[in-house]
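Before we proceed, please read the two lines closing this message. Report back on whether the structure tokens fit the sequence:
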Amino acid sequence: MKKIQLVIADDHGLIRDGIHAMLRYEDNINIVAEAVNGLEAIIRVEHHLPDVVLMDIMMPEMTGIEALKKIKETAPETKIILMSMEISEEFISEALEYGVSGYLPKDVRKDVLIKAINRVYEGEEYFDSKVSEAIFKNYYKKKTNNSSVVAGSGKLGKREEEVLTLVCQGMGNIEISEKLFISPRTVDSHKSHIMEKLGLKNTVELIKFAIKNGFTEL
């Protein structure tokens, strides 16, 4: 079984040690390096080319947001999960613009952290419920200011509507497949078709569309 190659970037040794303790016995996760600031995180990524980077936002030398931008330019296949004590709409918006795959509060539970790492490694996105709420608030603020939603047109089938509703409940491909009795590959295919029909780019835009059109509520 291929292990997920993980880099941890945080300027607090206590936090790094805590993450190590939580992930120590996970058979499919291998922590290959640590970094104490954003600049060092970039160097570690260039050297190890990890699958996932778990990175604090507020660090000296270079912030996690700045490091995210640089890493996505030099190692676009590496997935980034940002962690922060503060759920800031500004930080989230900027992180989404630069291609973040996940965003978690630092008080996240072990099972949620492991789920997030596995989810982004599989090519999905993972945002904690507090983060999702901030995304939605930011979306509605823009909507009130007459900003437009990136969406095309296209009629969704019944199964596509079911998949969209479950995506908005925070379910991943495997959870949706078990709920609807279809394969994870079929779920992924439905999601791709939905985004293609609606002219959307990612799961965040998908959820925004779902809120606007009544598939889910804030």
Observations:
- The first strand starts at residue 4 and ends at 9.
- The domain at 158-212 is CATH 1.10.10.10 (Arc Repressor Mutant, subunit A).
- Residues 42 and 71 are 6 Å apart (CA to CA).
- The chain has a mean pLDDT of 84.
